[in-house]
Structure formats: C-alpha cells, structure tokens
Amino acid sequence: MSFTSLGLSDALLKAINKKGYTNPTPIQQKAIPLILERKDVLASAQTGSGKTAGFALPILQILNSGQPLRHRPVRTLILTPTRELAAQVEDEFREYSKFLDLRSTVIFGGVNANPQIRTLRQGVDILVATPGRLLDLENQGVLSLAKVEILVLDEADRMLDMGFLRDIKKILALMPSKRQNLLFSATFSKEIKQLAGSFLHHPVMVEATPVNTTAEKVDQIVYRTDKGKKTELVIKLISEGNWQQVLVFTRTKHGANKLSQKLEKAGIRSAAIHGNKSQGARTKALAGFKSGKVAVLVATDIAARGLDIPLLPHVINYELPNIPEDYVHRIGRTGRAGASGEAISIVSVDEYEYVQGIEKLLGEKLESEVIPGFEPTESLKEVLDKKAENKAQHQKGRSSTQKKKPTKGRGFHKRGR
Ligand code: AMP
Predict the structure, then answer these.
(1) Which end of the chain has the least Cβ crowding within 10 Å, N or C?
(2) 117: domain range?
(3) How confident is the model over 331-380, as pLDDT tens digits?
(4) Residues 18-39 pLDDT 10s
(5) Does residue 242 sit in the same domain as residue 185?
(6) Domain for residue 199, yes or no?
(7) How far is the CA of 53 from the centre of ligand 1 (A)?
(8) Which atom of ligand 1 is nearest to the CA of 45?
(9) Is the pTM of this model over 0.90?
C-alpha cells in the first residue's frame, strides 16, 4: 500500500516524500482513512509504530480542507504525558505541514511560560501540550479550548500512570462536546478502557501490533548475574561490542546518576535523563545522544517515555521494572519502523519474579543465558537480607538528620522537665 492510496493531499505527500518515508506503517494504513472519515478511534500502538504520523497526517488534511478561522483558535489539541514527547509530536506536525498554511505550537512545564504565551496570543491551529501547563495557561485566560474540533490523547496509558486522570477530566470539560476523539495507548488496562468509554463516541478499534506483545524484530535476551556484577557486565557488553548508541534503564533516578558516572569513569560517554533533571539538561542529554556525542543514555521509565530515537540498536535493562507493561514500553525503543534491535535484561536473583511476570504478559519465555565470569552466586535470601539492611541504614540516616534539624517557630514548645 502507498501513501497516495490513503487519500492524502499533494502537499502532505510532498512532505512525506521529503521525510523519506516510502510506505505507510500498519497503524498508518489503518488509522489514516478512519480519521479522515471523522471517526473516533481507539488505537493500540506503541512508540516506534509510526503512530504520530498516523494521526498527524489526517488531522492536517482535515484542518487544511476548510478556511483558517479568524484569530486562529486552537482547533486540535494533542495531550501527551511528557515534555519530550510533546516536543517530538509538535516537531512532526511542523514537518508534515511544511507546505500548508497551518500553525502549531507546543507548551509544557519546567520552562519559562512567556514565549509560549506570546506564540499562543498570535493564534495556533494545532496545540500540543502536557496537562499541567495547559491548565495553567487556560486558567490565566491565555488560551481557550472552546473551538477544539479534534482531541488526541497520546500514550494515554502513561498519562494515567503519571496521575493525570483528574487533569484530563478537567481538560475534557473545557472543550465542546461535539468533536472527534482519538486515543492512542500501548496497553489497555481496565482504567484505560473506562477512560475511553467516558468520552469516545462509537470508537473504531485499531491495532498495529497485537496488544501487549513486543515487536517481533526485537531480539530479547536475559543475562543472569549478581547485583554487584551488573555494572561491570554493562561496561563489558558496551565496550566489547563497541556499541555507539545504547539506552540503559534503571529503576531509580539515583541509580541512573550513579550508573552514568561509573560508565563515564570506564571511558564510556554517558548521560543520565530523569525527572529531577531540569528541562534544559534533559534536552541537552537527548540531543547529545541523538547526535552521537553521547553513546549511552541512562534513563528512568518516565523520563524515557516517548523519546523519539530513530533506529536504536540496543536497549539494556540494568534493572527490570516491576510493572511488566513497562518492559514492553522500554523495549519498544528498539526495532523501530522496520529496523531491527536487541533488548538485553541484566537480571539478579531478586528479579526472577519480574521475568515471570513479563513472560506471562508476553505469552512467551525469554531466552536466558549466563556470561562466563559473571555467573550468579547470590541466593535470594542473601540479596533480600542485604536490601533490608540497606533500607534500615538509610532510614536510620534519615531519622538522625531529622533529629538534628533545628525546630522551626518561636519556642512555643513545651519544655521537658
Ligand atoms: P512514532 O511511533 O510516531 O514515534 O514514530 C517512530 C519513528 O518512525 C519516527 O522516527 C518517525 O519519523 C518514523 N516513521 C513514521 N512513519 C514512517 C514511515 N511510514 N516510514 C518510515 N518511518 C516512519
């Protein structure tokens, strides 16, 4: 199937051609005609499936088919869970609308709002936003959602994971009830189905990859080892394989920083990306990674969500997520839009139960190996005892610093006798 047969205009075909896409991906083949028919769509699609173009192209065609409205009110709203994803989605809108007279912009928190306000005041047809900043600016009267004709919830599952349900409901109430709704999600929990049921009108279901399965092109392997040997194993894999672009996942922000520092010490160019980093630092780390200046990006799940890194050959799970769906999201970063990739999980004995959860979700066994020199020797009991000890020490440390804290206020405390 070609893009021409999907009924897209010449201006869009020209932009697609410029991007170098030859054929629509499966999600694009299915979603584009339905969106052009003005249906509500509930799509199961992961990052890497080409989902963004799957909604951006038909939306641009719809918006372009009429006259631009005076003052350019927001006619399409795309909500995303993270700032990075918002920026990437808007980039794509910009590229596909190169030959059209439509304006788009992106707003998200963590950066100065003034430039965003200035752009909004000039009028935009398409607004890509994260929920918090959107509500802030709407409350301030900087933007109105009263003329929204099309709403997209992108990566809806992650929005719920990040606690955006209340914000989403508030935003829904600010829009006209007559509008087209599109919901994209990689997984379909009960909560997502409930949310979808609450605002989609007779939605058509579209599936790109079967729900909750990983892309076939990703080779998945588990290396069993001890906790204390993980860093060394990551260094060995990256340096011996001479890997130039690797995304490594840790469970915590602190863990991401620590690992990134250790990799740097071992002479591997690395950067960490997580929620405690400023927006500037995150953007810089991602740009360095994309340009090849940084070989390894160490990320937490939330920070990595929605990152658009084309042709990512290697993903390493330094620690497995305890939510099996997060594994699917993580490895969705490899083997994107037709390229092949490898997902490696480095697993210690206390994570074996997570492997089982993932296998259950995928409906298949993961291949598991031991690398000579990195054989696992710890028992589950040893690891759990060590964890409990660390936790107790951590808590002791915290409570002693709390005790040392000077009391606030002006001495209204009862004195001890
Ligand atoms: P997405 O799933 O929207 O994050 O897209 C993943 C990547 O695939 C992006 O880098 C897109 O630029 C790229 N892409 C989207 N559609 C196509 C296509 N039809 N052919 C090749 N690459 C595509």
Answers:
(1) C
(2) 3-207
(3) 877 765 455 678 999 999 999 999 999 998 888 899 999 999 999 998 88
(4) 999 988 988 999 999 999 999 9
(5) no
(6) yes
(7) 7
(8) 2
(9) no
Cα separation, 18 vs 96, in Å, equals 9
Q: Which tops the pLDDT comparison, 257 or 408?
A: 257
Q: What is the CATH number of the domain that holds 339?
A: 3.40.50.300
Using DSSP, state whether 151 is helix, strand or coil: strand
64 found inside a domain: yes
CA neighbours closer than 13 Å in the CB half-sphere of residue 156? 27
Does 20 share its domain with 69? yes
For residues 243 and 150, state if they share a domain.
Answer: no
Strands (E), 111-185: 126-129, 150-153, 180-185
Query: What's the CA gap between 205 and 41, in Å, rounded?
Result: 6
Residue 345 maps to a domain: yes
Ligand 1: centre distance to CA 337 (Å): 6
Amino acid at 329: H
To test the pocket of ligand 1, the residue of 21, 206, 286, 333 to mutate (highest count of ligand atoms within 8 Å of its CB) is 21
246 and 196 fall within a common domain = no
DSSP for 9-43 reads: -HHHHHHHHHHT--S--HHHHHHHHHHHTT--EEE
